[in-house]
Specification:
The complex is a heterodimer. Chain A is α/β, with parallel strands linked by helices. In chain A, 35% of the residues lie in helices and 14% in strands. The longest helix of chain A is centred in the C-terminal third of the chain and has 38 residues. Chain A is globular and about 80 Å long. By secondary structure, chain B is an alpha+beta fold. In chain B, the strands form 2 sheets. In chain B, strands 1-2-3-9-8-5 form a 6-stranded antiparallel beta sheet. In chain B, strands 4-6-7 form a 3-stranded antiparallel beta sheet. In chain B, a hairpin with a 2-residue loop joins strand 2 and strand 3. Chain B starts with 6 loop residues before the first strand and ends with a helix. The chains are: A alpha/beta, B alpha+beta. The interface between A and B is small, with 6 and 8 residues.
Amino acid sequence: MKYVPHTEQDRQAMLAAIGVSSVEELFSDIPESLRLKKPMAIPAGLSEPEVKKVVSGLSKKNETIDDYISFLGAGAYDHYIPSFVDQLLLRSEFYTAYTPYQPEISQGTLQSIYEYQTLICELTGMDVANASMYDGASALAEAAAMACDRKSQVVVSSAVHPEYRETLATYASGQGIEIRVAEHAGGVSPASSFEPLVSKDTGAIIVQYPNFFGNVEDLRSLADLAHANGALLVVAVVDPVSLGILESPGKCGADIVVGEGQSFGNSISFGGPYLGFFAAKEKYVRRMPGRIVGATIDNKGQKAFVLTLQAREQHIRREKATSNICSNEALCALAANMTLCALGKEGLREMAYLSLQKAHYAFNKITSIPGVEPVFRAPFFKEFVVKLPKCPDEVNKELLKDKILGGLPLKRFYKDMDNAVLFCVTELRTKKEIDLLAARLGGM
Amino acid sequence: MIKSDLKYTKDHEWVKVEGNKARIGISHHAQEAMGDVVFVELPEVGDEISQHDSFGTVESVKAVSDVYAPVSGKVVEINEALLDSPELINSDPYGEGWMIVIEVEDEGQLESLLSAEEYEAFLKEAE
């Protein structure tokens, strides 16, 4: 079966309408030497049952996070997702990729985005949030660009996720923003390591909270340093479940808070699609990238939701816009919205508290193994770094035999971190699973 | 409404010469065409701006427009009141709604501006 909607008659009519006699003539601008003169080298079509066989054969090769005991985190977290979330996401009203430009037919979509924005504001302690961005890393890069409206430089902690910093560098190279890296000390980012790097050109001080190593940063001193130098404090929350128990970045003086919302209702999915969230203080709202949904009153006095402040957006004034982003991750944002509503304040606190407790239990168990050393002494949330007595890649290979995904070896990102591993423990890990990990590590 | 003691540009800015300084805003005609102004973006004191370059924006419920520098110079004052009360541009475009004051770099550039009569003729022509 061919899924080509046009008949030969249709094609002739279209060609006639634009005054050419054949498809060949339509493409006459393309040099002969560049044209494909033979059928494309792809196999013939298959019937539906045949396709099903091929595709299910491929999918049977996959293994999911549910088949393993995962101690991997570093920006992708294995958290509880309420069962109803996936069911409701499949509703066609939500599943459509339609952009809600026409409020009169998009009230449901707009309301769901507005609710999501509200939840992000409450979590981060900010005044306004946008409708979402591609992922945490691109949201961070956008925040840096926004903070460099009239400045040309950012100072970022080396304890910010290395891949986020790579994305930041990609954006910054095109925008002429200089990136200075403030080295962490003992796994945290003290103001003293930023001080010598901050100048009058600094648009933002950038930290992650909790940071890449799982440690909790002292945001207040960094906010003071940023503000004393006319810069903004940009905080990346890669693990927002932590906000169930940590003070919000907004309360600690942050000006822009971005992060990764995958933890809320979105599966790990081999790295995407994810959910970037972006929130800021109200005075910066006009410099924000992306879409913003607002609530207003229609001509009958009824509450209505609309895309608002669109003069900021790149389709209105491209050359002036903070960003060229015009997509958002509405379905992922909806999953986050539904998950947060299902958990509620108490539920989120419990999820955070259980993760914290279990991670500390695992830390104590693992660091009591002879030869295993804790790398940092800072307070951590649910991720921690330890030094193993042998090569982490070898260790992880061994663990896989028991269907255990071990921690992330850090040598790839930090030269001085031989044999260091970043472990992550969420509320889904059981005591039995943690004990098994410790037993296996102890037996190597 | 055109004030006779001011100079104008074809982008609908007005200029009031005050010694070696120039006070700048947008004309009554411009604010009327834009409708209710909801936000104004201004440069910072100390910024150097060049003739014909955008130095700020005026956003109304209908559109966003750039505001262009009638002459080159250094910004010495900005109307902070507009940041909280942008509607002053509608209510009093030639008074409380002024936008910036610059130190004129080249007085010769003032010669290129329109007189009140020329601006009036320009508006009539545009109708």
